[in-house]
Design brief:
The chain is an alpha+beta fold. The chain has 2 domains: 246 residues, Creatine Kinase, Chain A, domain 2 (2-Layer Sandwich), CATH 3.30.590.10; 110 residues, no CATH class. The chain has 11 helices and 12 strands. The strands form 3 sheets. Strands 4-5-6-7-3-10-12-11 form an 8-stranded antiparallel sheet, with helices on one face. α7 crosses α8. The two termini are 36 Å apart.
């Protein structure tokens, strides 16, 4: 398998330049991905708190067993059928298909780190593939929990636009395929909690203020009362990392998509954003010197450390991001820090910051080689110092 690698040149080319990453696809071409996905960029409404917005739909093909009841042969049938459907539109003119069974552990991990596939999809051994649009904003998992999981992922608070785009794709799908739907219960899904609209709206939020003021537990309690789920950086089953949290709806039955969207965009997210900004103001008012010390200590560590573990780097990057948002740091672009949140992840790190002393750098990588060993921590520290020392 031919793989494009990102080279670290002698003139200190930083990870801010956009070389491409190559992944195998089902065909003769190679999928080209930039160093970071567009959702992690700092553009978009309310970007100081809202990192990204996602609208996701679950759909199943009528007349075929759901994934959890299907044989590998039936899953291959689903995969072949979906890949032959005319799903490409003007915005996603070229849907690039990646066969997860033919991909390496490192390639699969990279897709997971970019939030293009779920952990369940990453770890499955069944026939499965993901389609990615040229701009990476649309992706479609085939044979995850449902036959199709379609998502649009955008930077900032852009849930309405994400919803509009995923609906465009869904209309093309339903025009060309027979979808499992019940006249009373709505769209049928493998998990009963998704039956009905089968829609998930979610936002990725940066909430260091609520954590530092010990208000996160109150947010969790309020979320439970509102039928919301609060999860970590990688969604379901993950812990918070770098003070990032995903907030999504849990209710899908008995409510329309437009009502869900209106509540989420018009009430829930603005309220959480306001609470986070209020918490940040409280931190400044209570002890501005202590806050500045935390921010600058974090920056000093990132600029001087020779070894950085993943959680340590995420914690310090979170404090630097907070410092930029509050105007305490003016010489570091927010976009630089945003990209580092993704580039310090294990699979991205191997592509962004190859180690010339690593004689295994060009060998296939197994899952255990993606662990946070000393070589990886050194490579991560080198990457972060290079990006933040300009």
């Amino acid at each position: 398998m031919t793989r494009t690698r990102w080279l670290h040149s002698s003139n200190h080319r930083t990870p801010l330049d956009p070389p491409l990453l190559g992944l195998p696809r089902t065909g003769n071409r190679t999928v080209k991905l930039k160093q970071t996905g567009p959702w992690i960029e700092h553009s978009g409404p309310d970007a100081d708190v809202v990192v990204s917005s996602r609208a996701r739909l679950a759909r199943n093909l009528s007349g075929l067993p759901f994934v959890n009841q299907a044989t590998d042969s039936e899953k291959r049938e689903v995969l072949q059928l979906v890949q032959t459907l005319p799903l490409a539109g003007d915005r996603s003119e070229a849907l690039l298909w990646i066969d997860l069974q033919q991909s390496t552990p490192e390639d699969r991990r990279l897709l997971f780190e970019r939030h293009l596939v779920s952990r369940q999809f990453l770890e499955s051994a069944s026939p499965r593939a993901v389609a990615i649009a040229d701009d990476e904003q649309l992706s479609v998992m085939v044979n995850e929990e449902d036959h199709l999981r379609m998502q649009v992922l955008l930077p900032g608070l852009e849930l309405e636009e994400a919803w509009r785009r995923v609906v465009e794709f869904d209309r093309r799908l339903e025009k060309n395929a027979d979808i499992a739907v019940h006249p009373r219960w709505g769209y049928l899904t493998a998990c009963p909690t998704n039956v009905g609209t089968a829609i998930r709206f979610s936002v990725m939020l940066h909430l260091p203020g609520l954590r530092l003021t010990n208000e996160l537990e109150r947010l969790r309690r309020a979320s439970n009362d509102l039928d919301l789920a609060v999860r970590g950086f990688y969604g379901e089953g993950s812990d918070s990392s770098g003070d990032f949290y995903q907030v999504s709806n849990q209710l899908t039955l008995g409510v329309s998509e437009t009502d869900l969207l209106a509540t989420f965009v018009g009430e829930i997210v603005p309220r959480i954003v306001a609470y986070e900004r209020m918490a940040r103001d409280i931190l400044v008012e209570r002890n501005a010197t202590l806050l500045e010390d935390r921010v600058h200590r974090a920056l000093g560590t990132l600029r001087s450390a020779r070894l950085l573990a993943i959680e340590e780097s995420m914690k310090h990057l979170s404090r630097v991001r907070l410092g930029i948002a509050l105007g305490l740091l003016t010489d570091i672009p927010l976009g630089t820090v945003q990209r580092l949140f993704l580039q310090v992840q294990p699979a991205h790190l191997r592509r962004v910051q190859p180690d010339s002393t690593d004689d295994t750098a060009l060998e296939p990588v197994t899952e255990d080689r993606l662990l946070d060993d000393e070589r990886t921590r050194r490579r991560r520290a080198d990457l972060v110092r290079s990006a933040l020392s300009g």
